[in-house]
């Protein structure tokens, strides 16, 4: 079973996270940020992973530290859970429609952190959630997990739908790229390592 547990405690947040890549889509999410909880639950369900997150953050300031630190810890757990990456497909790319919105998310589990984020979210907030934190979450995840991630919005008007499309797509590419392919001996790289 490819799984990991990570705890991160700073002066701003305490995050406890358990991840099982080979799960069933079960989740227990409490970040203190309602909309973010919803997005992580969607990601988990569509990525067939099991995820438990408990975050106590300085929400009296804003939600930035909580969202970013969950991204950091999720990236660390993902990297740990993958181990030596032997046999994984490595690449995945999906289009995900959500009503009028359509996003494309592509990943390379390469060991080289890079985020390309081409998404215009029409509103500054969804409820009380600052929409600029979507990019912050993915940047934190990428920097800790060492993946290359491209996220593009092809079209969309509703901020909730746009973000939901992206998180569902993110779960789906994680599932596809981490799937074991019996044809792959070792890692899928001419270098012999990822």
From TrEMBL:
Compartment annotation: Cytoplasm
GO biological process: L-histidine biosynthetic process
Span of the signal peptide: none
InterPro entries in UniProt: IGPD_sf, ImidazoleglycerolP_deHydtase, ImidazoleglycerP_deHydtase_CS, Ribosomal_Su5_D2-typ_SF
EC number from the UniProt entry: 4.2.1.19
GO CC term (a single one): cytoplasm
Reaction(s) the record says it catalyses: D-erythro-1-(imidazol-4-yl)glycerol 3-phosphate = 3-(imidazol-4-yl)-2-oxopropyl phosphate + H2O
Annotated GO MF terms: imidazoleglycerol-phosphate dehydratase activity
Key word Methyltransferase present: no
Keyword Lyase found: yes
Biochemical pathway: Amino-acid biosynthesis; L-histidine biosynthesis; L-histidine from 5-phospho-alpha-D-ribose 1-diphosphate: step 6/9
Keywords: Amino-acid biosynthesis, Cytoplasm, Histidine biosynthesis, Lyase
Protein family membership: Belongs to the imidazoleglycerol-phosphate dehydratase family.
PANTHER family attached to this UniProt entry: IMIDAZOLEGLYCEROL-PHOSPHATE DEHYDRATASE, IMIDAZOLEGLYCEROL-PHOSPHATE DEHYDRATASE HIS7
NCBIfam families recorded: PRK00951.1-2 (NF002107), PRK00951.2-1 (NF002111), PRK00951.2-4 (NF002114), PRK00951.2-5 (NF002115)
Name listed for the protein in its UniProt record: Imidazoleglycerol-phosphate dehydratase
Organism: Caldibacillus thermoamylovorans
